[in-house]
Design brief:
Elements: E1 9-11, H1 13-19, H2 21-31, E2 36-43, E3 46-49, E4 58-61, E5 64-65, H3 92-100, E6 106-111, E7 126-128, E8 134-139, H4 144-160
Helix pairs in contact: 1-2, 1-3, 2-3
Length: 162
Amino acid sequence: MDSAVQHSVYCLATDVLDEGATAVLENVAERAGVRSVTVAAKYHSVTDVYPHNPLRKFATVPPGVFYSANPARYRNEVIKPRPSPAAAGRDALGELCAAARPRDMVVSAWVVVLHHDEAIPGGPGLQVNCFGDEAEGMLCPANPDARRFAELVVEEIARSSS
C-alpha cells in the first residue's frame, strides 16, 4: 500500500454515542484495519439506516453539534452552534478523541458548517437568491456573520480535538 494514501472510516456521532467510542475504534482498527476515524462533529438533520447500531436501526437525528461548544466564544455572535438533542449533553467528539489517544489512532472531524438547519427563518446569514427567496437552513458564505460562525466552529473543533 502506498504510504502517502491515508484511509479513514467515516461515522456519525450517533455511532459514538450509541456504541461507545471504544467499540467504534476497536471495530475500525480490527475489522477495517484502519487507524483513523472521521466523525460528524456538526451535522444537518438526517434520516438514515444504522444496521450495526445497538440502539437504532432506522432513525431521524436532529441537527446540531456533537461536541462541547463554548458559549462564551459566541457571546457576541448572531449565529451560534446548538447542541443536537441527540447528543443528550454528551461530547461525542471529545469522547472519541480521548479513547483514540491511548490507541495511537487519529480522529478527524467532518463539519457541515454552512448547512445550518438550526437557523431561524428570516434570521441572520441565510442565503437569499436573486428573487429574494430565502434558502431555508443554508448560510451564505458571502455573509460576514456566516463566515465568522464558520471560522469559530472550525477553530473550536480544531482546538478541542488536538
